[in-house]
Amino acid sequence: MPNKTISVRIDGELVTAQEGQTILEAAHAHGKQIPTLCYLKGLSAVGACRVCMVELAGTDRLLPACTTPIQDGMSIKTASEKLTLYRRMAVELLLVERNHICSACVSNGHCELQSMAQSLGITHVRYSYNNPHLPVDMTHPRFVLDHNRCILCTRCVRVCAEVEGANVWEVASRGIYSRIVSDLKDDWGQARNCTGCGKCIQACPTGALAEKGFSVMEMVKQSDSVSRLAAQRTHQANGALERFGMCLQARPEQAPGAAVPRPFPRSQSSRMCSGLVGLHPPDRGLSRRHRRKLSGPLTSRPS
Ligand code: SF4
Ligand code: SF4
Ligand code: FES
Questions:
Q1: Rounded Cα distance, 41 and 226, in Å
Q2: Pocket of ligand 3 (CB under 6 A)
């Protein structure tokens, strides 16, 4: 059933939106740009960076556009002096939390954090730098994780779980001690679930995740390719769910103990019922973790 159409005001303009959309989605649908950092189209929204805050008429509280559902009659302001000040503060706090030395960074010139700082007119920060001593994980054969550049947006965590289905990344600890960790704090090179697909690299908005072999200013990310892939997988998964519905409908008609007829070959329908359909393109087959589950321990380390 199509979602109900509602009326809202965005920056004074009366527009329609669909019930269930977020403020950000509704604004995008009408060509309004709201700055974002942790949001990436195609992944779930978590509201981590607070850069997308907007004003809502009738309340002093600012709301994160990426996670707030739009409601009928809302009047939203996406740009104002108050919002610029707030967004500037949020970005400055990200810059001082770790060690962002752009002149020595692989993402210099192609970094979403840097671009955001530039667009907000940040020429200096008003807070003292934390200067933490953070490690760089070089153990993966092809990729590198530099905690010094990480803004804890969790895009890597979400793309790995929601698009690749490998669940390598997590956030460990709290507050200023929070860190992205792979496979229960193993070195990335030891993370057996990692398929080496590189989606986390492309999704990362900064120089925190990069490919080896790239020098200062050389790492250019393709985060829109992740969004396109996510949309494609959602489409495939929806199709598979419809077929899964057929599979479920067939069951009540079976005599007790009779074999369930399979509308697909065994391999495909078992993947479908384990929720993997749509998460892996046909040429990739099952993830390493599920291959291990089905065929016992791997004899060699994933490359
Ligand atoms: S990640 Fe971005 S902001 Fe941080 S040092 Fe690199 S270029 Fe600068
Ligand atoms: S490694 Fe990159 S994608 Fe992952 S949380 Fe840090 S900044 Fe975000
Ligand atoms: S983009 Fe909305 S909180 Fe980060």
A1: 8
A2: 36-39, 47-52, 64, 66
At residue 240, the pLDDT reads 81
At residue 46, the 3 state secondary structure works out as coil
Q: Where are the beta strands (DSSP E) in 86-142?
A: 136-137
Helix (H, G, I), strand (E, B) or coil at 190: helix
Ligand nearest to the CA of 118: 1
How far from 233 is each of 196, 202, 272, CA to CA, in Å?
A: 18, 17, 13
Cα(48) to ligand 3 centroid in Å equals 6
Ligand 2 within 6 A of CB of 151: yes
- Measure 158 CA to ligand 2 centroid, in angstroms: 10
Q: 22 burial class (0-12, 13-18, 19+ CB within 10 angstroms)?
A: buried
CB atoms within 10 A of CB 71: 12
Taking CA atoms only, the protein residue closest to ligand 2 atom 3 is: 204
What is the spatial distance between Cα 122 and Cα 10, in angstroms, rounded to a whole number?
26
Q: What is the pLDDT of residue 272?
A: 30
Question: With a threshold of 0.90, does the pTM exceed it?
Answer: no
User: Taking the CB of residue 83, how many other CB atoms lie within 10 A of it?
Assistant: 19
Question: Residue 82: CB partners within 8 Å, gap ≥ 6?
Answer: 55, 62
What pLDDT score does 245 carry? 67
For the record, the structure tokens of 259 come out as 């074999």
Which tens digits make up the pLDDT trace of 195-235? 999 999 999 999 999 999 999 999 999 999 999 999 988 88
What letter would DSSP give residue 163? I
Residue 25 one-letter amino acid: E
Cα gap 170→173, rounded to integer Å: 10
Kindly list the structural domains of the chain, giving each domain's residue range(s) and its CATH number in brackets, ordered by start: 5-79 (3.10.20.740), 86-221 (3.30.70.20), 224-249+259-295 (no CATH)
- Which residues, given as ranges, of the chain have pLDDT below 50? 247-303
Model pLDDT, residue 236: 83
Predicted pLDDT at 185:
86
